[in-house]
């Protein structure tokens, strides 16, 4: 075996051991890592949706975004084992029954037809899905839709924002935040991100994480937003959500046409203004796609494999 691989692997193990030797806070107390983002001002992210999925006698949590009054956008990985989902809109503190909250339940879930999990590499492909709501949501100050991109911008070097109720301690699988947390960081190019992750696709978009902040389990499906436009969907990161490594999101611009075909989303910027405007709602298929997989591994443990021989280069990310 190439000596380069051996030395890099040894460096990785030493680095991981040093992280484990750092002083640990008691279990259940969030470390300063959405692994532990900033508490947002109540209802300042009005498009954020809390999702509680049920399937195979299990339940699991994810995030999503309201893109129309009848559709929620989320990650395919959240949906592929689901038989139904509880949807909560207008929430800030999910542990309380706030007067602003709207509860709905749906089993009408459409996953991208090309979604799959690479069992060997633990990589999610075409990680996107939409949920059809059983009734149209009334918009107000705390429940709003989020705009989707109108141009094929890469958003490199833009500041992105992501929120969620996910784990605040990756080693404690019940440390979900009851309060909506958020973090901001810089979106990086796929070329830079590929120093850490293997085989990135055009439909992937990456954002840096800081030394203390990272999305984690429970945040999957949440929107990545730049200037009030959703550009990504939380998809996957390194095992245990270790801060300091980039996180992969599904790139909305690459799959925008599928979103339009699968929902009633309308990009009003594409409507030509003349004497009058006639908007026709497209016919939407709400057939639920059945996704087959060849693994029974728990979704929370499936993370992409690092290119170990390139791990040293990730140090450069802190200076980009």
Automatic annotation (TrEMBL):
The keyword DNA damage does not apply. One of its GO terms (molecular function) is serine-type endopeptidase activity. SMART domains: Tryp_SPc (SM00020). InterPro entries: Peptidase_S1 (IPR050430), Peptidase_S1_PA (IPR009003), Peptidase_S1_PA_chymotrypsin (IPR043504), Peptidase_S1A (IPR001314), Trypsin_dom (IPR001254). SUPFAM superfamilies: Trypsin-like serine proteases. Pfam families: Trypsin. Belongs to the peptidase S1 family. This is Peptidase S1 domain-containing protein. It comes from Rhamnusium bicolor.
